[in-house]
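Troubleshooting log. The previous structure file for this entry was overwritten by mistake, so regenerating from the original sequence record. Sequence copied from the archived sheet and checked twice against the printout by T.R.
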Amino acid sequence: MKEEIRLREIFITFLKINAFTFGGGYTIVPVIRDEFMKKRKLIDEEEMLGLVALAQSGPGAMAISTSLLTGYRLRGFKGALTALFASVLPCLIIISILFYFYDAFSRNFWVKSALIGMGGVISAVLLLTVYDMGKAAMKKHRYFSLTLMVGAFAASYFANVHTIIIIITLAVIGLATFTIFDERQVK
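Regenerated output below.
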């Protein structure tokens, strides 16, 4: 694995990713994953899953958190600041433009149609992201992971349990399981 990436490359890469990917954190994650895990081979799959899990559990926008954590993993504190700035910059520019031209955009037929079309694409990207992350999570502990995923889905969808309670519960279950049992014993 290549270990070093320049700060300028981190900035340009995260600026492009965050400027041209619509839909929020879960649509940006596969792009970051492809760029730094598959293309550049700077982060392995297990580490990427860990970064995404950590980004989900922290406060704020997932896209920003994932970018920040990836930048930190690649180049430490300077990498984190660089990735953070590159990730926030497109948002600030776009929101500033929308602030001044909101009335014209909100009534424009073509803009409305484009946003509706992007909704379908974003849904497909989210579905692929969930599939890829689920497949990667089930590589090591297939039955344990599947049980937790189904349980989390059921708690959220059918019982309307708040997401933070599900995350904390799963964290406690994972910590307890891997504290009590050897990792090789958990299937």
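The two ends are 29 Å apart (CA to CA). Archived copy saved in two places this time.
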